Request: fold
Amino acid sequence: MNETIRELLGKVGGLPGPVAELEDDADLYAVGLSSFASVQLMLGLEEAFDIEFPDNLLNRKSFSSIAAIEQTLTHILKSKEAA
Amino acid sequence: MSLAALATDLSMSARAHRVAAVAAEFAETVDRDARFPEEAVNAMKAERLLGIQIPARLGGEDATTLELAEVCAILGQSCAAAAMVFAMHQIKVSSLVEHGEESAWHIDFMRELAARQLLVASATTEGGIGGNLRNSICAIEIDGDTCRLSKDATVISYGTHADAIMITSRAHDKAAPGDQVMTVFRRGQYTLEKTVTWDTLGMRGTCSDGFLFKGEAPAVQIFPKPFAEIAAQSMLANSHLLWSGVWFGIAADAVSRAQAFVRAAARKTPGAQPPGTLRLAEASSLLQMLKSNILCGLKTYQQAKADPDHLSSMAFSIAMNNIKLASSETILTIINQAMIVCGIMGYKNGTPYSLGRHLRDAHSAQLMISNDRILGNTSTMLLIQKPDTSLLG
Reply:
């Protein structure tokens, strides 16, 4: 999952520096993730994991770091399994 | 209500009406000379309206966004420039109230703002960033306990009249353009060298000149929270809602003038329906829609305030963007209808039905944060966020 996130982030994130150098808990907005790029990242994640982000998770916090995205995805995948 | 009856009424709306009476008296010269609405702002201070949003324990009155929007709408009916100065000041105060409570300096500043009725201006625009306030080129320099900032601020509304300026910059010299902080600089801690003169179609009295800002202050005056959070959680909503309050005021006064025109005509020719009445009815319907739009936005904000995650959600951003788009576009239609009703008497300056100033002031609405930029942001979010289909929310 971490790898897929990083791969997508590299493809659509538009960050000035290399994604490999980012810590999992680095603030993505602080390193230059724009709101447009964050939406592209979300769309990519929806496609890659065959999920839909529920409205209550479409906020800044859910996508603020690689770790936060992993947590958000894990949460969605778990509730998908349970359903 | 007569002014005499209002004189002893200390409610916020009565105080706003007294300020509006002063603002109305000078609205035309403020507009003609593109000068600061000094008399109206002094009246705001005398009525102690500049500090109403500050918490009561710090000397304010805990005014809600709803109450602030009402004051904006009352002032907007007299002098849009004075109303906009009030709105812009309160938008800055909202950031202090929502995000300043973690810092002793900002708490003291709020106390002093309420006590001395200080006027706060904003410097978020910068040459070279193309109007996107979420990006900065300039960076604040922190040197021990001191911070220094130099910014090519292409717009600082009423900059030379303010007691303090809240200004954005990158958080440090290596920060990305979007990694910003906001700092309060007090008068005496900065110099302003005028670079651009505000000579515009409307909103002439906001005196939104451009300046080269150079400031030095204790570093504790930097807000502890990142500006991204401040922008999302207090500035976005307050800007769109309070501006909308001002715009509602402009449109409401235009409809009042159109109604006065139609009534005067109806009285002169009893039994005959004056030609403008149907358009007046249409304008009144649009005005009501505008009012509902703003009230709905105020309610949404009130509910969202309890939950910081919701305040930074896409659903909330889209809702606020939509309020701004609808308000700024509808007022132009309303004022145009009113102009057609009043005919040449509306088109001419100096009649009781003149609407030139209203129309010129109202044209700023779709440009202050360009509607195209807002539509662009919303359209991106709608790639993933489902539209709000609920009636009650």
Observations:
- The beta strands of chain B are 120-123, 141-143, 146-153, 164-170, 180-186, 190-196, 210-218.
- DSSP finds 13 helices and seven strands in chain B.
- The mean pLDDT of chain B is 94.
- The longest helix of chain B spans residues 227-268.
